[in-house]
Specification:
Elements (H helix, E strand, L loop, with lengths): L8 H13 L11 E5 L2 E4 L4 E4 L2 H4 L8 H13 L10 H13 L7 E5 L2 H17 L14 E5 L8 H5 L4 H4 L9 E4 L4 H9 L11 E6 L2 E2 L5 E2 L2 H14 L2 E5 L17 H4 L6 E4 L10 E5 L2 H4 L15 H16 L2 H18 L5 E7 L2 E6 L4 H10 L2 E2 L1 E4 L2 E4 L7 H12 L9
Parallel strand pairs: 3-15, 5-6, 5-7, 7-10, 10-11
Antiparallel strand pairs: 1-2, 2-3, 4-12, 8-9, 11-12, 13-14, 14-17, 16-17
Helix pairs in contact: 3-12, 4-12, 8-9, 13-15
The structure holds pyridoxal-5'-phosphate.
GO molecular function: identical protein binding; N2-acetyl-L-ornithine:2-oxoglutarate 5-aminotransferase activity; pyridoxal phosphate binding
Family: Belongs to the class-III pyridoxal-phosphate-dependent aminotransferase family. ArgD subfamily.
Subcellular location: Cytoplasm
Length: about 425
């Protein structure tokens, strides 16, 4: 693989400066990027790439979308930041749009944060407040702390609360002990979920009732693995039977990515199940940092009261204006239809390209992956990069695709053409 060190003088100069001043949490950057347009991006040495990662499902409108640029520019010239002692028009409009797009019931409310992890932090805190209202739970005398259930292979972020609900042992264990009373059910196995709901063991803080289940409908970081709708229906039924909340983490799947505003609106993912709360982030502001939580209905929303939660930047007008522009363009430019069509084109192209390296494509809309016949995803992503295509090794044996929702049919053909030529004898380091 060619890292920046083997590139031209310009790129390698930036790389050594990068290393001098940044903590090494992301490894060595592959390139130093300079500018982009649509689904195309250029590095500081002038090399062009077709971007099928989109900043990991963030750049919904691609790079430098004129409406998005205009919205941010105009807002920056008016008012960029205010404290939460005040409100701004874009923040109110975006909250209204999100509630509307989610089809959330009358009385639903939004909390804005700045990232996916922060959306999930808010959800976990809300679930904890909800837990305290349940029969048998704190703060009653003799009450026990309610529990939260997450799924194996799930990913919810890296702040300590979100990390507590994130499964991957490598990234969890160095930071233990984490938030107590979060338990993991085996993903896709309803019996495992039932066992947790019915367990009443002694647990360090006592095994109280289950307050909430938090889960993804497509486990993105786990390799783009879709849930079985029958399983989701079963989880909903368990939550209903026990009075627990069902929270969908739609940080990666939300805001048009799977061909609907939210993945739960796809029956082939949710089986028609409606959650009690949804978290969102990545694509919501088209590349501006923003995330948050939609609580469905008035009573759940009312659990947060002044002081329960907050952030200095929450609902920042610039981020909110970027969000309004992003949702408006997704609507007006029919980008969810495009996500559905281009996603199918991509998966069909990969299934029929004749390269034996590819053993099946999966996903919905423009959140997709291709299974590799052997574990060579890192080598494959590096090979693609050298051939002008950005994709991501989401698992040792799978590549992930999350291109901008504006990606064209020609872009998809070009992506498939590069991958078709990929050598079959690649190996991971
Ligand atoms: C990316 C992601 C997060 C974390 O979002 P950050 O903005 O990186 O904090 C949480 N949940 C899911 C499903 C994600 O894909």
């Amino acid at each position: 693989m060619k890292s920046l060190e083997t590139l031209g003088a310009d790129g390698s100069h930036w790389l050594s400066e990068y290393k001098d001043v940044h903590m090494n949490v992301f490894g060595t950057p592959l390139r130093v990027l300079d500018h982009g347009l649509g689904s195309h991006v250029w590095d500081v040495d002038g090399n062009e790439y077709l971007d099928f990662l989109g900043g990991i499902a963030v750049n919904s409108l691609g790079y430098a979308h004129p409406k998005w640029v205009a919205a941010i520019t105009e807002q920056a010239g008016k008012i960029a930041h205010i404290s939460n002692y005040f409100a701004s028009e874009p923040q109110i409009r975006l909250a209204e749009m999100l509630i509307d797009k989610a089809g959330a019931p009358e009385g639903s409310h939004v909390y804005f944060g700045n990232s996916g992890a922060e959306g999930n932090e808010a959800a976990i805190k809300l679930a904890k407040l909800y837990g305290r209202t349940m029969p048998g739970a704190l703060p009653k005398i003799g009450g026990k702390q309610a529990r939260i259930v997450a799924l194996t292979h799930g990913f919810h972020g890296r702040t300590l609360g979100a990390l507590s609900a994130t499964w991957k042992p490598d990234i969890r264990t160095p930071f233990e002990p984490l938030v107590p009373n979060i338990e993991f059910a085996t993903s896709g196995d309803l019996r495992s979920m039932e066992d947790i709901f019915s367990s009443t063991g002694k647990g360090r803080y006592g095994k109280g009732p289950v307050a909430a289940v938090i889960m993804e409908l497509i486990q993105g970081e786990a390799g783009v693995k879709a849930m079985d709708p029958e399983y989701v229906k079963g989880v909903r039924a368990l939550c209903d039977a026990h009075g627990a909340l069902l929270i969908f983490d739609e940080v990666q799947t939300g805001i048009g990515r799977t061909g609907e505003w939210f993945a739960f609106q796809r029956k082939d993912l949710s089986g028609g199940v409606v959650p009690d709360a949804v978290t969102f982030a990545k694509g919501v502001a088209g590349g501006f940092p923003m995330g948050g939580l939609i609580a469905f209905g008035a009573s759940l929303s009312a659990l947060f009261t002044p002081g329960s939660h907050g952030s200095t930047f929450a609902g920042n007008p610039l981020a909110a204006a970027a969000g309004v522009a992003t949702l408006t363009a997704i609507q007006n430019e029919h980008l969810m239809e495009n996500a559905e069509d281009r996603g199918r084109q991509l998966r069909d192209g990969l299934e029929h390209c004749g390269n034996p390296l590819f053993a099946g494509a999966r996903g919905r809309g423009l959140l997709d992956a291709v299974q590799l016949s052997h574990p060579c995803a890192h080598a494959a992503a590096n090979w693609a990069l050298e051939h002008g295509l950005i994709v991501n090794a989401v698992a040792p044996d799978a590549l992930r695709f999350a291109p901008p929702l504006v990606v064209t049919a020609e872009d998809v053909d070009a992506c498939v053409a590069v991958l078709t030529k990929m050598p079959t004898d690649l190996k991971n380091d």
